[in-house]
Amino acid sequence: MEYRRLGKAGVKISELSLGAWITYGFQFGVKEAKEIMAAAYDAGVNFFDNAEAYAAGEAEIIMGKALKELGWARKDYLISTKIFWGGEGPNDSGLSYKHIIEGTDNALKRLGLEYVDLIFAHRPDPETPIEETVFAFNQVIRAGKAFYWGTSEWSAAEIMRAVDFAHRNSLRPPSMEQPQYNLLHRHRFEVEYAPLFKELGYGTTTWSPLFGGILTGKYNQGKIPKGSRGDLKEYAWLREMFEDEKKTGSSPPIDWGSG
Fold first, then answer.
1. Residue 21 φ then ψ, to 5°
2. Secondary structure, 3-state, 98-124
3. Residue 24 and residue 59 in contact, taking contact as beta carbons nearer than 8 Å
4. 46 within 8 A of 3, measured Cβ to Cβ
5. Residue 252 pLDDT more than 80?
6. Average of pLDDT values for 119-134?
7. What does the alpha-carbon distance between residue 66 and residue 246 come to, in Å, rounded to a whole number?
8. Per-residue pLDDT reduced to its tens digit, 130-188
9. Is the Cα torsion angle 109, 110, 114, 117 positive or negative in sign?
């Protein structure tokens, strides 16, 4: 396994990571998660990704229980979570100071950890000033509840605003972005973000490298394999996408929600 620095940050993460989206809570419980994480860890993976939105928090609970049973030394692995979709209440979502602080605390309780290594703003929040979001994540870091903070699916302009505000106010700027990146979704990563990588040394961890399983070829015959992501009732939109593609012969735009 190769390990890479996260942009300009000193921390090194495995070039392959293991994420909990869709699978933990919808397909797998603690037993399966533990087996999968152990196999990944034995292969050199040291980075495990999660989010408060995954299975409405159940994915964090499952991963936390698996970590406890595995008993690894905390220094030997990195955990991330993402804050944005935390519940149905008026202050249970978004990137307000209130939700970032409370969402982080709740995520740590579910994971059974004192801190996460990486924490992401899961989406941009047009209802909250970027300045408030930057300050809130700095408070999370100062409290020792996370080491690095970053963004996910933010525009390059929004990231630049956050970095500029942080620098002007002696705050920690975001260190990394988690965008979708695969053979069918390349423009944002390769074109829009290119100046961020070159000028800021911005790091990145990507999601959906197989485009929801499409690039594996398992759906090429127009059928949904039993037990696949397209077969999950919670992800009916994925099945509908395949059905639309079969009718029109082309792939419609996809709203990946909380990826």
1. -60, 135
2. HHHHHHHHHHHHHHCCCCEEEEEECCC
3. yes
4. yes
5. no
6. 98
7. 39
8. 999 999 999 999 999 999 999 999 999 999 999 999 999 999 999 999 999 999 899 99
9. negative
pLDDT for the residue numbered 245: 53
The pLDDT, as a whole number, for residue 22 is 83
Tokens of 36: 């999968």
The long-range contacts involving 220-225, CB below 8 angstroms and separated by at least 24 positions, are: 222/246
Residues with catalytic function = 54
CA dist 152 → 56, 58, 82, 119 (Å): 18, 21, 8, 10
Report whether pLDDT(103) > 60: yes
Tell me the C-alpha distance between 142 and 91, whole Å. Answer: 23
Token pair listed for 148: 């690095």
Report the distance separating Cα 20 and Cα 42, nearest Å.
18
Buried/exposed 28-50: b ≥16 CB within 10 Å, e otherwise: bebeebbebbeebbeeebbbbbb
Tokens standing for residue 221: 């015959």
Order of strands across the sheet that contains 116-121: 18-19, 47-49, 78-83, 116-121, 146-151, 176-177, 203-204
**Which token pair is 131?**
């300045």
Query: Which segments of 128-179 does DSSP mark as H helices, in order?
Result: 130-142, 156-168
